[in-house]
Amino acid sequence: MSWTDKLAETRTQLQALNTTIPETNRAFGALCQTVKETGPLDFKTKEFIALGIAVAMRCDACIALHCEALVRVGATRAEVGDVLAMTIQMGGGPSKMYAAKALDCFAELSAG
Predict the structure, then answer these.
(1) Is the CB of residue 84 less than 8 Å from the CB of residue 102?
(2) Ramachandran bin of 74, using left for φ above 0, alpha for ψ from -120 to 50, beta for the remaining angles
(3) For the chain, what are the domain ranges?
(4) Which residue of 63, 65, 74, 79 lies most exposed, with the fewest beta carbons within 10 A?
């Protein structure tokens, strides 16, 4: 499955979940908006942190969503690589395997 397909599948699944639990979805959405729009760190930096956590937690859907956001804000392959290196340093072998997935995802989504 391509990362573009993974994004589409994730969005479909989230729409079904959000329809089932709309109040929770609204509350989570408000939390996400507050975290991303306030504080001393810029959005891009926060997305780098989120990608690192997604890799460490081994969440393919999270990797896809955060790589997509990083592509939108103009992150470079070198920047993503640096984030992935730090994630590997902190998470060892399992993080290395998911870092490879994340780099593949970023490359696919960056290509268009």
Answers:
(1) yes
(2) left
(3) 3-110
(4) 74
Closest CA to 110 of 74, 79, 85, 78: 74
Q: How many CB atoms lie within 10 A of CB 34?
A: 10
Task: Report the C-alpha gap between 3 and 110 in whole angstroms.
Answer: 11
3 in Cβ contact with 108 (< 8 Å): yes
Tokens of residue 62, six digits: 């999270």
Per the CB < 8 A criterion, the answer to whether 71 and 107 are in contact is no
Cβ neighbours around 35 below 10 Å, total:
12
pLDDT in tens, 32-80: 999 999 999 999 999 999 999 999 999 999 999 999 999 999 999 999 9
pTM of the model: 0.92
Which residue in this structure is represented by tokens 């890799």?
A: 55
Q: Which of 37, 111, 17 is nearest to 68 (CA)?
A: 111
Alpha helices by DSSP H, listed for the chain, are 3-20, 22-37, 43-57, 60-72, 77-110
